Amino acid sequence: MSRIRVLVVDDSAAVRHLVAQSLSVDPQIEVVGTAANGRIALPMVEELAPDVVTMDLEMPVMDGIETVRAMRRRGDRCRIIMFTSVSVRDAKRTFAALAAGANDFVTKPSQMIPGAASTGVAESLIPKIKALAAQARSSMTSRAGASDAGGDGADAVHLAARPRGPREPVRAVVIGASMGGSQALLQVFRSMSTLPVPVVVVQHMAPIFTRQLAEWLDRVCASTFLESQGGEELQPGHVYVAPGGHHLELRATARGTRTVLHEGPMVNSCRPSVDTLFRSAVSVYGGSLLAVMLTGMGSDGLGGSEAVVAAGGTVLVQDQESSLVWGMPGAVAKAGLAHQVLPLDKIGAAVLAAVPRLDRDLASSAGGM
């Protein structure tokens, strides 16, 4: 297989060197060029045809957001990873870049000490570059008709069986996402009106960025979004985002359901973890839980989805074709734990179709009393 071609765009010569050096340790990756700003990068993208571009946010002449917009306007399909500093201002600008068409982001090391910084950059960038490039190539193969979304043989998708008897009305929705999840969440929630039940989201993301994610979605979607601070009583029409660095669990109380945050051990190398949220939600809602697995790398959420199915709840999974990375949703689908495997633009409608049963069932129950 040919090596993954990467273009590095950053106004700092030291950072360009650091990123190129960090990526050079992997024989599957080839840095095909570097650029000091977006204006220089644009013709290089056309000439070099990179699979992935790492893009700085702050650059003179043409910054990262402008460059992403220009690339997407002219139809460039290469994956774009923003390389951003950890600050509130840069977090806000990072979401602007994602809205413009960037695929994901990584944070820069706090200190540019050659050895440690190079190792940190390699550990954060290389897995994402490989995942994004692999998914892009897989999508091209799928579109050419060489494979289907579920694969074949051991990877074939078998839908989960529906439990016998009447289904419980949905009383809460839980969602797990990772790489590519920001745009996926945006598309799902923009396609829905405010739900009559609470929603809780785990998006694998660093602190500061989860708060900005909640604020960004709150500005552009119908539901009320907030980063959980712990101790909230879940309310219909509200979406609670797990804060970076903390697990979010749900606990039943006399008044309803309450959020609980803690910094326990990582689960599946993640904190917050989708498995942690899903399992705790099952303990509260049982079979009246709707779980949704969106794009993401790894398999976090597999065990939690198994618990949802065992309790009689429902699991919806994003399909491979529409996922930026079909790791997390793919693991659930291939394990036979998904009741539906859907393209991203159909998930919002599927959630809406499931959730209103609560209103109808309550009305039916009231009428029969």
What does this structure look like?
This protein is α/β, with parallel strands linked by helices and 369 residues long. The protein has two domains: 140 residues, Rossmann fold (3-Layer(aba) Sandwich); 214 residues, Methylesterase CheB, C-terminal domain (Rossmann fold, 3-Layer(aba) Sandwich), CATH 3.40.50.180. Strands 8-9-7-6-12-13-14 form a seven-stranded parallel beta sheet, sandwiched between helices. β10 and β11 form a beta hairpin. α6 packs across α11. The longest helix has 30 residues. It is globular, with a radius of gyration of 21 Å. The chain starts with a strand and ends with a helix. The C terminus is likely disordered.
Short description:
Helices cover 40% and strands 20% of the residues.
H and E string: EHEHEHEHEHEHEHEEEEHEHEHEHH
- Beta-strand percentage range: 15-25%
Radius of gyration: 21 Å
Largest sheet: 7 strands, parallel
Coarse structural class:
alpha/beta
List the total number of helices.
12
Mean pLDDT: 90
CATH topology of the largest domain: the name is Rossmann fold
Please report the first level of CATH classification, the CATH class of the largest domain. Alpha Beta
As laid out across the biggest beta sheet, the strand order is 8-9-7-6-12-13-14
User: Quick one: how many beta strands?
Assistant: 14
Supply the CATH architecture of the largest domain.
3-Layer(aba) Sandwich
Q: Number of domains in the coordinates?
A: 2
End-to-end Cα distance: 66 Å
Residues in helix, %: 25-40%
Low-confidence sequence ranges: 146-154, 358-369
Shape: globular
**Corresponding CATH superfamily of the largest domain:** Methylesterase CheB, C-terminal domain
